Amino acid sequence: MVDISEKQNSFREAVAKGRIVLRRETVKRIMEEKVEKGDVLEVSRVAGIMAAKRTYEILPLCHQVPLTSVEVRFEMGEDWIDGECKVKTTYRTGVEMDALTCISTALLTIWDMVKKYEKDEEGQYPTTRISELKVVEKVKERLNQDI
């Protein structure tokens, strides 16, 4: 683990995005709230937030960061759902890994909740995929230490 003892607290923010591709019929089910397991987007949002808060337990060399905000939002197309996670803190190290963990988990939760509708006759997932996982923004602003 990197020693951050001498670093000063700074405002930190990271935004990560990703996409899950699904069958059109599955996306329609999600939109119409006709998925047997429940409200896919709301459950996935909560799963992403929970994962962000536990990133240090998942990634062995990640610091435990006191998160001050985690936001998850989704945008839907005909055969895809884009997810975006924004994480904020005031701390000595960034939150990119927390944002990536958040959106990865949110997208995996979507897959888990709709896998019943995504399988083909052989039980495979010919359409379903998660892609375009990336950090799209990172902010670091020094705090005025004289206040």
What features would you describe in this structure?
The two termini are 31 Å apart. The chain is an alpha+beta fold. It has a single domain (16-141), classed as Alpha-Beta Plaits (2-Layer Sandwich), CATH 3.30.70.640. The protein is built from four helices and four strands; from the N terminus they run βαααββαβ. Strand 2 (67-76) and strand 3 (80-91) form a beta hairpin.
Please indicate the percent range of residues in DSSP E strands (runs of 2 or more).
25-35%
- Report how far apart the termini are: 31 Å
CATH superfamily: Molybdopterin cofactor biosynthesis C (MoaC) domain
Give the strand line-up of the largest sheet. Answer: 2-3-1-4
Low-pLDDT runs: none
Assembly type of the shown chains? single chain
Number of helices: 4
Number of domains: 1
Report mean pLDDT, rounded to a whole number. Answer: 96
CATH architecture: 2-Layer Sandwich
How much helix, percentage-wise, in residues? 25-40%
How many DSSP-defined strands?
4
Structural class: alpha+beta
Order of helices and strands: EHHHEEHE
Q: How many strands, which pairing sense, and closed or not: the largest β-sheet?
A: 4 strands, antiparallel
Short description:
With 147 residues, this protein is an alpha+beta fold.
What brief labels describe this structure?
147 residues; alpha+beta; Alpha-Beta Plaits; 4-stranded antiparallel beta sheet; 4 helices; elongated
